[in-house]
Structure formats: C-alpha cells, structure tokens
Structure prediction request, 776 residues.
Amino acid sequence: MESESEPSPPPPPSFSDADDPPPSHSPELPEVIALSPLLPAFDAALSARFRLLKPSPLPLSSPISSAASAALVRAPTRVDAALLDLVPSLRLVVTTSAGLDHFDLPECARRGVAVASAGHVFSPDVADYAVALLLDVLRRISASGRYLRRGEWPLRGDYPLGSKLGGKRVGIVGLGSIGSLIAKRLEVFGCIISYNSRKAKPSVSYKFFPTVYDLATECDVLILSCAFTNETRHIVNKDVMHALGKDGVIINIARGGLIDEEELVKCLMQGEIKGAGLDVFENEPSVPNKLFTMDNVVLSPHLAAFTTESSSDLLELIIANFEAFFSNKPLITPVSGKRVGIVGLGSIGSEIVKRLDAFGCTIMYNSRSKKPSVPYKYFPNTHDLAVESDKLSCALTPQTHHIHHIINRDVLLALGRDGARGARRREGIGQVFGGRDAWGRGSQRVREQARRAQRAVPDG
Amino acid sequence: MESLGVLMTFPMNHYLEEELERRCKLFRLWEAPPERRAEFLRSNAPSIRALVGNANVGADADTIDALPKLEIVASFSVGLDKVDVARCRERGIRVTNTPDVLTDDVADLAIWLAIAVLRRLCEADRYVRSGAWTTMGDFKLTNKFSGKRVGILGLGRIGLAIAKRAEAFDCPISYYSRSEKPYPNYKYYPSVIDLASHCDVLVVACPLTEETHHIINRQVIDALGPNGVLINIGRGPHVDESELIAALLEGRLGGAGLDVFEKEPYVPEELFSLENVVVVPHVASATWETRKAMADLVLGNLEAHVTNKPLLTPIV
Prediction:
C-alpha cells in the first residue's frame, strides 16, 4: 500500500497489470559491511539480498561513517577492540570459518556484538579428507600410483605392501564437530577410537586420555582436529612423536602450528615415526622441501574443507544468519560464550546470571529444586552440572551452610582442567566456592579440596 | 606335507613362497622362461599334486590338462576368473580361494578411490610437491564425497563392506545384483544401466565371469554420465577399457578410480594425463596383514587336503 506521508516514485513504464498493488517506495535493503575482501560468488549473492558496503582499503584502518549493524569477515581479518572502535554501530559479525582465532570473543561479548561462525558446514569434507589421508599413508596408495605412472609396474613387479587400516588404534586430538565425524567414519573401518580433549565427554564411548602424550603411547595413529591456541601450539612435539613410535602415523587437518614441524621432518627422516598426512603447515604455503621426496607422507595445500558443496552451504548459512539477525530471530550458528553452571539460583545467583547472559554465556543451574519460571537447564546435583559446565559459580548463602562440601573432589574433577584452573586465582576461588564471609572455615576446607583435586588433574 | 608337490605359478608372496619351500616340494613356474613352460610342466607333472595361483597366473584348461596328478588348486585370491573351475570339477580337482580375509582392505580401497577422485587427492599432492602452492596460489574447489549416491555392482562380501563404509559418510546406497537381497536400506535396481543412471559413484564389486565381462560398457558409462565416477576394484575385463578412455577424454564420464586393468601390468598412458582419474597397481589386498592371512589360508587349505580334513574355503 502506498504510504500517505512519503512521496512515491512514478510507476515503471512496464508496469501494466491493474490488479497488482501500486509500486511503493522500495524497502531499503539491510546493510552489510564487508570487512574483508570477498570471493566473487559471495559478493554477488550478498549484493542480491543486502546493501553490501565494501569499504576500501582493507583492512580497515580508519573509522567509517556507517550505521550498518552487520558485517562479514574472513580470516585473517582480526575482529578486536581496534576494529570494533572503527565501526561502533556493529551488533553482529558473521565469519566464513569455523575457527575463531581471529576473534577477540570476550571483547565482542563486552560490547554486545554477536558472532556467527561457519558452524559445521565444513566438517564432513574435512573428516572425509582425514580418512583418505590416513588410508593413503598407511597403505602407501598415492606412492603406488606414482610407481605405476613411472612405468615401474611391468619392470619391477608389485609395489611393496602397505599396512591395513582395520584394527589400528586411532587417537583423535579434539573430539569436536570434525573429530567426532572422523571417529564415526573410522569406527566403521574397524579402527579402535580413543581421544584427548580439554575434558572427558561422558556421552561418548571412546576412551579418554588426559594428555596427547598419554594418547600417543597407546595409539598407532594420531589425528589432529583441535583448535589452535596458545595452549595447543606444538602440542605434538618430539616426546609425543617418540611416544607414538616407529609405526606411528600423524594426520593433521587442523592447523600447522599444532605440530613442531622441524621435529616432524626429522622424525620422518630418521624413521622415528612411520608417516604423516598433512593438509596444513606452520608457514603456508611454504612446505619443508624434504617432504617432497618422501613416499611415507601425503601432502595437500590446505584444502580439506573446501568443496563446491561446502562453499555453497557456507554461502547459504551466511545469508541465513544475516536474515535471521535482520528479522530479530535467533542466529543459526551463534558462537556461544562459556557454559556457566550456577550453584544456587537465589537473589545473588540471579544477578550473576543477568550479567553472564549479557556476555552471551550459556547458563545452567543447580538448586535445591527446579525453578519452572527460569529458562535455563536444571541439574539435580552439582556433579552433573559441573560435567556440562566450563566454569562453576557458587552463590550460596549462610542459610545453606549444611551443604558446605557441595563443591567436593568429584565435582572439581567433573569440572575439568580448565574449570578447576579457575579456582587457583584468589578471586577465582571466591567465584567458585564463593559467597559470604560467613563461609569462612567452610570455604577454607573447600579451597584445600580444590588444591588437592587440581593436583589430581594433570596438566597437558 | 613334505611329499606334496606344489606348483606356484607366480612370485605372489615371499612368506607363502618360503613356507611352501619349507613344508612342501615347491616348483616355481616363473623360473622357466615362457617358451620352456610347457616342458617345465611336462617334466615335473608326475610330482605336482597342488597348484597355487593368483590373479596374475591361475590354472587354465591347458595347465590343468598338463598336470594329471593335480588334486587341488588353492588360489591366492578371492576371484577365480583365472581358474578353469569347470575343468577342475570335471577332473574332481578341489578348488579353494581366500574370501573374507581381504574384504576389509578391498572395501577400504574402493572408498579411498572414490574420495581421491572426487577430491583430486593425488593431483593436490603433486601440486604441493611441485612447489606450485607457493607460486600459483590455492588449489581449486573439489567435489564432496559425503552424501554422494553410491551404486554397488554386486552385493557380495566386498560389496556389502563397501556399502557399510559408504553409509558412515551418509551416502545413500543402491545396488545391482543377480537377485534382490534382504537389505531394505539399500535400493535395488534390476539392471546395471538403471543403477548407473541413479548414482553418482558406481563401484564394480562382482566376480568376473562370462556374463560380467565388459559389464561396464558404453551405455552404462553414458548412463553414469559427466558427473558420475566409476570405481573398479573388481577385474580389468569388467570394464570396456577403450570405451572408458574415450568417455573420459570426451568428458562423457566425470571420473574414474581404477585398481585393475585389462592387461595388467600395462596401463594405458592416456589415463595418466587426466586429473579426474586415479590409477593404482592392483593394491586392493596389498597389506602385509591381509597377504599373510591369505597365505595362511592357502597353507591351511593345502594342509587340510593332505590330512583329509575338511577344506577351509572350498569352492569345489
């Protein structure tokens, strides 16, 4: 319907059907800022649905005058305080990758900027490639293909035998979206799956190892599918490789920096490990030349995620996230903040929850009884809450002194290495076991428990 | 079984050869040059009671006829296309093969070939080794394997193992077989062309017989189409190789992953230049674990034969 208060443009000459509504002021397409260079397909698809702003030059170095609330970025464009200062109108940043090392997530949360990632669109393709790399390295299939193409089959007979995949003990480092798909596939090939993760996952039946070293001692294969962080840099080092042993195979479809690459090359050359399948490297696109002549390695140029299908799935997902945002619906693939378990949801607990909610945390709680009016997930005991939480926050009152040992050793172990680590700092202890001064003696006892439990949870 | 004279037709496996040497009276057919083969057979025939062959050299009618004392043919393979089974039956000669122990390795390779073709795995590896990544930028987008429709020609032990694996990649499974099988999750097609028309990846996993010779012909290849991928882990003669090459060169077929060829060990060089083709030298069962298991099965069958016990894996 035509608006009375605004002048409407004249009807286009081709418009002739009287039954159609008269043309009105065409609605403004929502604005999306491209804060990284876009692939042509993405540019075209986004421009068709949104008013796509493409500031130049990139990366952005000076403030832009725009009221646009949504932006698209690609790694390695950093989304941090500096960038957010330049575009203060932003309320949503969508990124094209599943990895988020280019984001300062706490900063985004502080500023109320939502983040949407690529979610699981790449996971099947990466998992497929990991399986293919592993088979290739164990069976020397590509190497046999090279042998064939060199014309050696008629001259020298059959290519030397490889090693069977079935029955191999496979250790997966990082059992997330990709790792779990790899596990699901390799199980059907007859592999025995175990894993290392920041903490054990009670819902999976695979054996958990608290460190990558421990995992390596009991596996024939290590597959890396974890995030690359300060903690995981060079997580596969000389000791891990020696623990894996001379028949060991390493598959890396995550990030090059997870492996001490120089050491890896040495171990491969000296036969300290049997072989490796590598899609990623420390200094891409540079690859250590010594690998080029090895028949016990399979190499690929960081392509495990990238198929025409995953790219079009990604584009669909990006558009869906923007459209959800603009119609005030929940994002499809929001990056959730930490999962915080609140022990005690009284007046203090509720205040804590309000703040954490604003930071984008996922809230769960334990209380004497379930509170139906509360939208968060309820756990009937603290242990189960701790299993699902990254951090535990205790907000009990002196009236509840009869549950002083509510945070006991079992709860701390369930919380895991990262959760318990929070208890080391003074304010962390207060946060975990905190509450009132009236707790005094109780919290001291609990602090001792925390220290003892911390020693029981080995650092990786 | 020291008195058992065994003719080994081909140097198929060191361990098997050593064991036969140790435990039997071993005759090595390949030690005689081709023009002296007939004579070799003739002069040793009185001693030869067993023959151990494989996919390279089996026991054809001429060889069987040249060995009047032959009692058992123990094939170091599951496929018996190189054994004249009918002739053995006529003569009362026992025939054994090596089923089950190689099923996993063969199925593994079939899946690997499909992923390797779709994802251009070998080409990508060459791209890195040549240094192209540093000079020519990122590799192109390739094609996803997960979720592709997988059609299996022959739903025997190996075909089923392939189906089970492909299911883990969320691939819908269909098959052609001489008769429909009780697998409700797998869609049956009554002809190979129907199967080829309705799948993205077609895997040949049936025995080679007169009926299945060139079962993959031009019509089937065209039905599979420019986005379809053919995987052959059966026998070379399952596929009309010249039609296959023509289709690949003309873009009528999307890709091929081949472990077997009509005239092994000779592989048409046209196949080397195509980026959508992966060729490997008959490695489907080529792991030391599986070859040892196959060898033990051959030895076990021979042992059972000489001790008058039931054969482990008899066909005849």
Q: What stands out?
A: The domain at 31-116 of chain A is CATH 3.40.50.720 (Rossmann fold). Residues 1-5, 10-19, 21-26, 420-442 of chain A have pLDDT under 50 and may be disordered. Residues 308-326 of chain A form the longest helix (19 residues).
